[in-house]
Structures are given as C-alpha cells and as structure tokens.
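dumping these here so i dont lose them again. two proteins, back to back, each one seq then structure tokens. dont judge the mess
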Amino acid sequence: MNFFKKNLTKNLFRIILMAFLITAPALSFAETTSPEPIQGTTPSDLCKDKICNPISTNTIQEFIKVLLEGVLKIGIPIVALAVIYCGFLFVSAMGNSEKLTKAKNALLYTLIGAAILLGSWAIAELISATVTELGP
C-alpha cells in the first residue's frame, strides 16, 4: 500500500511539472502589443481571434516581476499556515522524542522554504535596482 502512495505523489509531481512546462511558454510568447481600442468595443472583443497577453507585460523582466509577485502572494500565506502546523506538531508531541524530532524537522524545512521564497524576492529586487541604475 505504501508503494502506491509513493508512486502517486511522484506521478502527481510529474503532472504538475509538465503542466507548468506546457503553459509557461504559452504565457511568455503571448502577444505583447494590443491594437488601439475602437470606440464602442471592449477588451474581450479585441481578443476574439487571437491570444492576447493576460498579464500585460512587454518585457521578460516585467514578466519575471509579475511571476515573483504572484508566487509571493501565494507562498507567504502557505508559509504562515506551515508555521502554525509546526506549532500544532510541537503541542501534539507531548514530550515524545520521535514526534518532537519530526516537529523540529518540519519547522526547519518550513523556515528554509520561507528563506528561499523571500531571498528570491530580495535578489530580484537587488538585480532590478542595479540594472535600473546602470540603464541610460
């Protein structure tokens, strides 16, 4: 039974990864310019026969910024929930050394994930500020 659970999670990860790899190029190669709006038309009328850019970015830098902001908006609440879950693990351990070790590891991995999440944002902001200063 444990064998099927391991394969299920591995296959689920592969499916999510493949879905991302298929949709990422479609989003990055979306049309970046939109025609001038005609009076009396809506934006949905302009995109009837073609793929319009849903994120309205014109450069790869803007796309990466929007992507990082989206990941942060989703990731920070998940980190908060994970920290709360780790606290629940500590309370439910009730002195059991094995459960305490599990809770400590869960908290460590949660904090490492949070550091990676916030570190990627900090590095992106640092690079963006540096490139902006060097620009014309």
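---- next one ----
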Amino acid sequence: MQKMSFLIIITIIISIFGCGESETTPNPTDNDDNSAEIRLEEKFSLKIDQVVTVNPVNIKVKFLKVTEDSRCPSDVVCIWAGQVSVLLNVNNNGNDIGDVKLTLGQNKDDTVRDIGGYYLKLIEVKPYPISTKKIEQSEYIITLIISKSKD
C-alpha cells in the first residue's frame, strides 16, 4: 500500500511540474509580419518564413528552407542514417550575417554556428520522413537555440 501511495504522489508531482525543458513556438504578431520575440538560451521552433527576435541581444533568425533531407525514413532499414540541412537568414544587432546552413547528421559541428559571439544550434527538424509521403517545405518545423556557449 505504501508503494502505491508513493507512486501516486510521484505521478502527481511530475504532472504538476512536468519534465524537460520549455520550448517556445513563436506566434506571429498582430501586424502579420510573421515574427515573434523570445529570450536568449530558450529553445524555440520556427516554420518556413517565420522570424524570431532573440532578446536582449537583438538577434533575428528567419527560417528560409530545408535544403536537404536524406534522413532514413522511419519505416525503412538503411545503412546510413542520413542528414537534414536547413537554411536560415541571420541578423545580429543590425549586422546582416547572411544565410547560415545548419545540418543534423553525423558531424555534430555542423549543427552549430558562431553568430558574432553567440551560438545558433539546430536541435531538431520535424516531421521525420516516412517512405510513403513527400514532405512539403511548408510542413517543416525546426527547433533551435541561441546561447552564449557552444554546448
């Protein structure tokens, strides 16, 4: 009986406080410019053509497109896991960094770029491919984080 009570209490605590890190999906503002604001070192998700401004450092990131998606579909057995690359446009405090390509795959260094003393890291690209469905550009959602350290 004590074990059951303990499990119930733990379940309640987990449901109240949750587990894992928070993630922000920017919502376009009322002026319909498809942009939002988030904080430094906060995970965020973007759809194609969405823009986020990271405060207080004034870094703007726009998700342009997925340039490659050779990930092994979830319903297929592959020799190579594949990779996915995205193209972003980055502006750091008024200075145009230009287009930045980030890739999830074998080389972990390709997931992170230095953007003027801050690091932009690609964490995830959804949806994950399946062999029977072509993913349209408009369906992609990427998860990123901008931080002071490269971790």
